[in-house]
Each structure stands twice: as structure tokens, then as C-alpha cells.
Write a structure and sequence with these properties.
heterodimer; A: Rossmann fold; Neuraminidase; 2 domains; globular; B: alpha+beta
């Protein structure tokens, strides 16, 4: 099923330490870098061939427009209108006339070429530094033609990494809950799509309520809550094969599942007699461990990326707050002390921050704090929003937002949104239906 | 003449608005005590005089006096109908995170279960199911709607 993308490096231009283009992603970017994405050049014969296979008139331009959209969505780059480009794609790819690109104020240029070789799609691309007048990177990929969208995402990841110094997050997928129907009886299905909303696919039929899907960081497995036969339990789903199974044999509701960073355990809540505690189950030997044992509600557990700590949500102080503890359950320590209630803590893949949902004076916020609770920053405020999930590079959060209904109870909707860690660049992530509970995958290729 | 008529109609409409809004606020205050729902809009009956649900304050799972009375009625009905088994469905309002609300719904349903058990109903006859905030009865986004949704509903299972 899984189509591997072959990647090989054509040329490596030695990286100069005095590279002129640098994008600082630690601050909100008010001056996105102007970049020109020249359509990938393609000859007429190749165009025709791919039109036959993929029903796309100009696959070169299609791939380029994916790169362009990705760069724009990141908020760090400002792709220039390609009508202003003076140089033809094929010539630009050989040797750009830097003066021409300077004229339209481009600081970086992406060029490339598409060809058809041994029934495969071959794409090469180059990244140019316009001001310094030199090539920064050149790579080529070969893959099955149907993988063309992923080529666009991988090119973006490479460009992002070269210009920001950090890994990208474009060749990734989002698993979420697709919603439909009246608020009092929503139909919910698991759905998966590319990070940019394309290739949307429903994974369940909507016969039973499903909630909170989460990716395994190391494989294409998903854990989620299903009300199959009216028994709310944590399930494991292999999205390649479609096989699923209940996790463990608990005499009551299990919920709020997440994988450990190595993908070998599931951590979740188990509710019994009005009390929810945190448990883990080892997926190899099926051993179940109880992590918390407290008469309060303990839920929404999330591991630190090194697996040594767990952050979780508990109302042991009387109200919902965020706590951290050792992965064994020892040394429980409250870290949220601001005004209001705190929920859904999620540890950043970089390890330094915990994202959360906060309820204060009737408003919901998505925010981040350091792992000792200091440095709280609220990124966005709304009537209702919750459940942030990190991009694999820890720079972007995706979450869902629900609207207030009117006096007749009409006008409800649930949508996915993303925001930068800086609090800038808030965007709706378009989905074919209403949506909630998003979870971001790891990078599919590296 | 015509102008007068318009003026009179406008006045009537304004008066009607006042009357209606007065009613609306009055209705709210008589349907909630603190923020616990005390009305009967959404309540169904397991048998004559036996309401099927109890309501809770925000973030709470404590049974109110009225809730305990309702549960005593349910217990006595269950004692008379000893073959009946029930599911207690616990719910929360939409003003909380999904996962915490699942736990809260479970806690609410168990509060009702514990009370029924103290009135002689065997735990074998009771199962508990939390829906968190997934199944509101009122789709409104206002305090009255939320109060109706914070509930534990006793449902016949057989």
C-alpha cells in the first residue's frame, strides 16, 4: 500500500555559513519572505503522458501550486504572483537571470523539471538565493505518478528546512472526526486527509459514535474511542489494512487514548464507579499498568517526547488543572496556576512546551506554557475551542472550534483551525464536512 | 389617520415585546435554581409520577434534594418491577473539554447509581454509560440549555 518515495541527491552545493536568506520562525512573521515558485518545466510529450495517467493538464504547474499554497499557509513566505515572472520555467531552471527575479523583489526562487521515466514520475527542483545569485539546493525524486501531491509537499519540506533550519510539516496527514447532522444527534466518522485538506477519506461509516483519534508517532496506526455496541472503549486501528481491535479488557469505559513516543504503549483513562484514573497498556505483551490512583478525575494524559514524564488533566484540587508526573506515576506536581480551568495538555514534540485548552470567564483559549507551568501564553480566544495537536516540528497547533447557536438552537458548526506557536497566522483548515478532534501525523518521509 | 394606526401598531408591538421578554426571564428563573435545571421541558416518565432524569450544577456531580426525590421514586418503581434493568446515561454540557466531560458524565451517572443502590436496587440491574457532551437534549448555547444537558437519565434496558 505504502508507496515509498525514492529520494536521491543530484548535487550538493556546499552550504555557506554566510547564507543571505534566513527566516526567523521564533517570532511572529510580519514580513514573510518573498519567494518565486516558477512552474516546474515540462515538455509537451510529458504533459500529454501525465494528462493520460492523472487527468491533469499540466502536472508541473500543479505540483508547483502545491508548493506555493504550502509556503503561503506557513505564514513565513509570500509566494509572488507567477504572472509577473519574466523568465520561462525551463530556462529559469537551467540558469536564472537573477536581475529579472530581483526586479520583482523575489529573494528566493524555486525552479524544477518534470519528466516521465520508466513509468515513473521524476521531479527535480532547485532552490536559488536571488540576492547572492547562487544555487542553495538541488534535489530529485522519483515515484509512482499517483504520488504527485506528496512530491509537492516534500519539496516544500526541503525548502522550509533549508530556509528556516527546522524540519517541515507538509508531507503529513491529519486524522480527525468528521461530523454531520443535528447537534443533538451528531453522526461522527473517522476521517483522514493530507495536511492541506486534499485526499480526504472516511475510515468509519458513522454507525457508532467515534471520538479523539490519535496517530502513533512511529507508524500508520491510530488509537481512538468508539461507542461500538454502546460500550465506549479505546480501539486500535491500522489505517493501511483497516483492521481494528479493542485495547485491553476493561470492565468499563476507557477513553482519552494516546501513544507513547516510541509507539509501543497506549496511555488512557479508565473510568470505574465514578472515578477515572490513568492506565497504560503495552501493545506487545498486553501488560496493563495503573499510573494514577486518586479519587478525582485523571484524564487527557500525554507523554513527554523522551517518554520520561506524563502531563495530564485532573480535578484533584477541586477544578480541572494540569499536572505532570514521572512516567511511573510518581512525583505528581500541579503546573497550572492561572485564573480559570485548564484541560487537554499536550506535550510539544520539541519537549519544551505544553499546549492546553483554558476556560476563563466563559471564553475558551488555546495556549502554551513551559513544562514547569511558567511562561503561559494564550494564542487564541473564542466562544468554544479545544484539543490542540502539534505539528511534528512543534511550530503549529491544529485544534477545533465550535460556534454558538442562536436562540432557536440553530447555526451550530465545528471546524478545524491552525495557529502558529507565535499566535500569528490563524487559519481555518478546510474540510468537506464539519470536523473536530484533529491529530497531526509525523512526517511521512524524511 | 394612517400615521396614527402605524404608531398604535408600533406601540402594541413594543408592549408585546416587553411582555414577552418579561415572560422569558421569568420562565428562566423558575426553571433553574442556581444553575441546576428544575423545569420539566425535557423530562420523560418511566411510569406515572416517575421522572426519568436528574440534573446537576456546572462541573458538579452532587445530587440535589429534588434529584434525590426523583431517584427515590425510581427506586420504588424498580423495586415493584424487579425484572427491569436500567442504564444510567450520564451527560455534560458543551462548556467543557471532551475528555473531561466523558469522565464527568460517568461520575454523574454513578452518583445516581450509588443513590439507587442505597435504596435497595442491586448493582446487577444497573449499568452506567457516559456520553460526555456528545448527546445534548437542547442544542442552545445558553445557560438554560446547558442546565438541561447536565443530567443523568435512567433508561430501561429490557
Amino acid at each position: 500500500m505504502k508507496k515509498k518515495i525514492l529520494l536521491f541527491i543530484l548535487l550538493i552545493v556546499p552550504f555557506h555559513s554566510h547564507a543571505l536568506i534566513e527566516v526567523d520562525i521564533t517570532r511572529g512573521n510580519l514580513n514573510p519572505l518573498p519567494v518565486a515558485v516558477s512552474p516546474l518545466s515540462i515538455d509537451e510529450k510529458t504533459k500529454k503522458k501525465f494528462n493520460e495517467i492523472l487527468n491533469k493538464k499540466d502536472i508541473g504547474a500543479e505540483i508547483s501550486s502545491i508548493v506555493e499554497r504550502n509556503l503561503k499557509t506557513s505564514g513565513l513566505f509570500n509566494p509572488l504572483d507567477n504572472k509577473a515572472f519574466l523568465q520561462k520555467p525551463d530556462i529559469a531552471n537551467l540558469k536564472p537571470r537573477f536581475e529579472d527575479w530581483k526586479l520583482i523583489k523575489a529573494q528566493a526562487l524555486i525552479t524544477g523539471k518534470v519528466s516521465y521515466e520508466n513509468e515513473k514520475l521524476r521531479v527535480e527542483f532547485r532552490l536559488w538565493d536571488i540576492l547572492a545569485g547562487r544555487e542553495m539546493m538541488a534535489l530529485a525524486f522519483t515515484t509512482v505518478p499517483t504520488n504527485w501531491r506528496r512530491v509537492g509537499h516534500i519539496i516544500t519540506d526541503k525548502v522550509y528546512e533549508r530556509l528556516t533550519g527546522e524540519k517541515g510539516y507538509f508531507d503529513t496527514r491529519i486524522i480527525y472526526v468528521a461530523e454531520d447532522g443535528p447537534k443533538t444527534s451528531r453522526i461522527k466518522k473517522l476521517a483522514i486527509m493530507d495536511q492541506d485538506g486534499s485526499n480526504n477519506k472516511f475510515l468509519t461509516l458513522g454507525n457508532e459514535l467515534v471520538l479523539t483519534p490519535r496517530f502513533n508517532p512511529t507508524s500508520q496506526m491510530v488509537t481512538y474511542l468508539s461507542y461500538f455496541r454502546n460500550l465506549p472503549r479505546v480501539y486500535l486501528l491500522d489505517i493501511e489494512t483497516g483492521t481494528q481491535e479493542v485495547v485491553g479488557d476493561f470492565p468499563g469505559m476507557t477513553f482519552a487514548p494516546r501513544f507513547s513516543p516510541d509507539g509501543k504503549k497506549i496511555i488512557m483513562s479508565f473510568a470505574k464507579d465514578g472515578n477515572s484514573d490513568i492506565y497504560t497498556m503495552d501493545l506487545e505483551n498486553r501488560v496493563v499498568d495503573r499510573i494514577t490512583n486518586h479519587p478525582s478525575i485523571d484524564t487527557s494524559p500525554s507523554y513527554s517526547p523522551d517518554g520520561k514524564y506524563i502531563c495530564f488533566n485532573s480535578d484533584r484540587s477541586g477544578y480541572q488543572q494540569i499536572y505532570i508526573m514521572d512516567s511511573s506515576g510518581k512525583n505528581v506536581k500541579r503546573i497550572s496556576f492561572g485564573n480559570g480551568l485548564y484541560g487537554t495538555p499536550v506535550w510539544s514534540p520539541r519537549g519544551d512546551l505544553i499546549a492546553f485548552t483554558k476556560l476563563h470567564k466563559g471564553k475558551f483559549y488555546i495556549g502554551v506554557m513551559r513544562t514547569d507551568g511558567s511562561g503561559e501564553r494564550l494564542l487564541t480566544e473564542n466562544f468554544y475551542q479545544e484539543a490542540p495537536s502539534w505539528s511534528p516540528n512543534g511550530r503549529v497547533l491544529i485544534f477545533y472550534r465550535e460556534t454558538k447557536t442562536d436562540d432557536q438552537g440553530k447555526g451550530f458548526s465545528a471546524k478545524l483551525w491552525s495557529i502558529d506557536l507565535t499566535g500569528y497566522n490563524e487559519r481555518q483548515v478546510l474540510t468537506p464536512t464539519d470536523a473536530s478532534d484533529p491529530s497531526w501525523s509525523s512526517l511521512l518521509s524524511n | 389617520m394612517r400615521f396614527n394606526k402605524i404608531l398604535r401598531n408600533t406601540l402594541l408591538v413594543i408592549l408585546a415585546c416587553f411582555a414577552l421578554s418579561a415572560c422569558a426571564t421569568k420562565k428562566v428563573s423558575t426553571q433553574m435554581q442556581g444553575d441546576v435545571y428544575t423545569g420539566t421541558d425535557t423530562v420523560e416518565y418511566l411510569a406515572s409520577g416517575v421522572p426519568d432524569r436528574v440534573f446537576f450544577a456546572t462541573n458538579e456531580s452532587v445530587l440535589t434534594t429534588a434529584s434525590r426525590e426523583t431517584l427515590r421514586k425510581q427506586a420504588s418503581w424498580l423495586r415493584k418491577n424487579s425484572k427491569i434493568t436500567i442504564v444510567l446515561e450520564g451527560h455534560a454540557d458543551e462548556r467543557g473539554t471532551r475528555e473531561y466531560n466523558l469522565a464527568l458524565g460517568e461520575r454523574r451517572a454513578n452518583a445516581a447509581k450509588d443513590y439507587l443502590m442505597t435504596y435497595g436496587i442491586s448493582s446487577d440491574r444497573i449499568s452506567v454509560l457516559s456520553y460526555g457532551k456528545e448527546r445534548p437534549v437542547d442544542s442552545g448555547s445558553n445557560p438554560l440549555a446547558w442546565s438541561k444537558n447536565r443530567r443523568s437519565v435512567t433508561v430501561k434496558a429490557n
